Amino acid sequence: MAQTDIPAAPAGLRRSGRVLWRAVLTDFDLSEHEATILREACRTADHLDALQALLEAEGLMSETSQGSRIHPALVELRQQRVTFARLLTALRIPTGEAGGTTRVRPAVALAVSTESSVSREASTVGRRTVGSRGARGAGA
What we know:
This protein has a two-stranded parallel ribbon with strand order 1-6. The chain has a two-stranded antiparallel sheet with strand order 2-3. Helix 1 packs antiparallel against helix 2 (32-58) and helix 2 (32-58) packs antiparallel against helix 3 (72-91). Helix content is 51%, strand content 13%. The longest helix is centred in the N-terminal third of the chain and has 27 residues, at 32-58. By secondary structure, it is α+β, with helices and mostly antiparallel strands.
């Protein structure tokens, strides 16, 4: 499928966010609410990069009037990583294929089991919808 079929990345995304946007939308068609989750995941990926760069420049410790403390960016980086993981989990993207079947996190097993009816209704050809788990280009 041509690169032009992928919607443009939201304005303001930096490199990591744009890469994530393209990677997901190359293989999956997303509903409106899933695109919103992806947009926030892309923004969070950019925040992670910025926080990491700040820590690399300033170090893990910061000096305060009370002495050396853990840099506040380190705490925020940890929180953003948790947020990023939750956003990706909310997209319900398969984690890979094992033995010819798609592995999905246990928390979404119920959603996957109910998606067979959804996948029959998917009208896209050659692209996976998150619900159908079909491969782009495989005619799923």
